């Protein structure tokens, strides 16, 4: 896939994000528009398939070389497609080297620690791909929309200074992880308000999807514009050279999944990982082991 196009999805550090300027649909440029939706979709599905296979082998290599961990962060409005992305993008990956963690409203115990504590504990080990379905970004998103949910903290104003300190903490946390061998990929699944309405209605109309419907999603939808603003702030303040945000057009699930799979595989490939090489001595030992087995008498 065109690297320049993928780069365009990245939020340049220091740039003020205005989500209204980002397309949520499939026709991202004139060339795609000209090719037509069906042709683009067909090619996208092929790329997704190729990437699934590549991701499976990239993950084996990640595991064998045991040097890096990969942390994938998925954020987005309700119904943006976080669960489906995990299911479809990671479907070929060996579950042993992959861990998915979803974050809900913090427990009492979690609230009795600093806001990064629960995420620290859930980080992937070296060699693993860890996926955060929601993340510490919730602590500058949902709680910024609903500041009454900030509890057990020392008194003080919850103004600009307070939130800037949180962005700073997040940037420092990520810098520390990256310096110590964690690759961080951050995706914001960008859907339109109309698409959310469509997906919520689908959940209500389809018996098999009913369980996914939550009245709280409808409540949160009322805060759509405020959410867009706090997302803009978070994306602006925490897109860094080392850990940039990607704004992924997500009104079409196949678009989002293909792009995310492509970005993850491209990133892991760029690490230039190699299977561990053995010393001459170890090779000699293995040769000896093989000779032993081959000479073993058949029972
Ligand atoms: P999902 O919507 O991800 O499928 P749930 O329906 O269980 O899962 O929703 C999780 C809820 O937890 C969301 O409403 C989200 O805003 C909330 N949440 C996650 N992290 C935090 C946090 N740090 N503080 C407050 N609420 C949070």
Name the structural class. alpha/beta
Structurally, how many domains make up the residues? 1
CATH domain fold name: Rossmann fold
Round the Cα radius of gyration to an integer and report it: 22 Å
Q: What's the overall geometry?
A: globular
Helix content: 40-55%
**Could you give the distance between the termini?**
55 Å
- Which architecture name does CATH use? 3-Layer(aba) Sandwich
Helix and strand pattern: HHHEHEHHEHHEHHHEHH
Describe this structure in words.
- The chain contains 13 helices and five strands.
- It has a single domain, classed as P-loop containing nucleotide triphosphate hydrolases (Rossmann fold, 3-Layer(aba) Sandwich), CATH 3.40.50.300.
- It is of the alpha/beta class and 299 residues long.
- It is 50% helix and 11% strand.
- A five-stranded parallel β-sheet has the order 2-3-1-4-5, with helices on both faces.
- The model has no long low-confidence stretch (mean pLDDT 95).
- α4 crosses α12 (253-270).
- Residues 78, 102-106, 134, 138-139, 142-143, 149, 214 line the site of adenosine-5'-diphosphate.
């Amino acid at each position: 896939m065109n690297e320049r196009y993928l780069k365009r999805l990245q939020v340049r550090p220091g740039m003020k994000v205005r989500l209204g300027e980002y397309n949520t649909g499939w026709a991202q440029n004139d060339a795609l528009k000209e090719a037509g939706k069906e042709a683009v979709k067909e090619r996208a599905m092929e790329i997704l398939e190729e990437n699934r296979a590549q991701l499976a082998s990239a993950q084996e290599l990640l595991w064998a070389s045991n040097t890096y961990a990969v942390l994938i962060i998925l954020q987005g409005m309700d119904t943006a497609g976080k669960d489906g992305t995990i299911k479809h993008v990671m479907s070929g990956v060996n579950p042993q080297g992959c861990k998915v963690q979803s974050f809900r409203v913090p427990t009492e115990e979690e609230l009795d620690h600093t806001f990064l504590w629960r995420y620290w504990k859930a980080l992937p080990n070296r060699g693993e791909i860890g996926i955060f379905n929601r993340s510490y970004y919730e602590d500058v998103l949902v709680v910024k929309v609903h500041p009454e949910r900030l509890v057990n903290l020392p008194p003080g104003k919850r103004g600009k200074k307070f939130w800037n300190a949180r962005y700073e903490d997040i940037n420092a946390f990520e810098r520390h992880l990256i310096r110590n061998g964690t690759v961080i990929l951050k995706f914001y699944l960008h859907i339109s308000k109309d698409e959310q309405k469509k997906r919520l209605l689908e959940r209500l109309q389809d018996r098999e999807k009913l369980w996914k419907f939550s009245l709280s999603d409808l409540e949160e939808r009322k805060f759509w514009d405020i959410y867009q603003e706090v997302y803009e702030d978070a994306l602006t303040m925490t897109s860094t050279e080392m850990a940039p945000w990607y704004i992924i057009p997500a009104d079409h699930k196949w678009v989002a999944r293909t792009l995310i799979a492509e970005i993850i595989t491209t990133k892991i490939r760029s690490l230039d990982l190699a299977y561990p090489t053995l010393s001459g001595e170890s090779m000699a030992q293995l040769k000896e082991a093989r000779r032993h087995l081959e000479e073993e008498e058949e029972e």
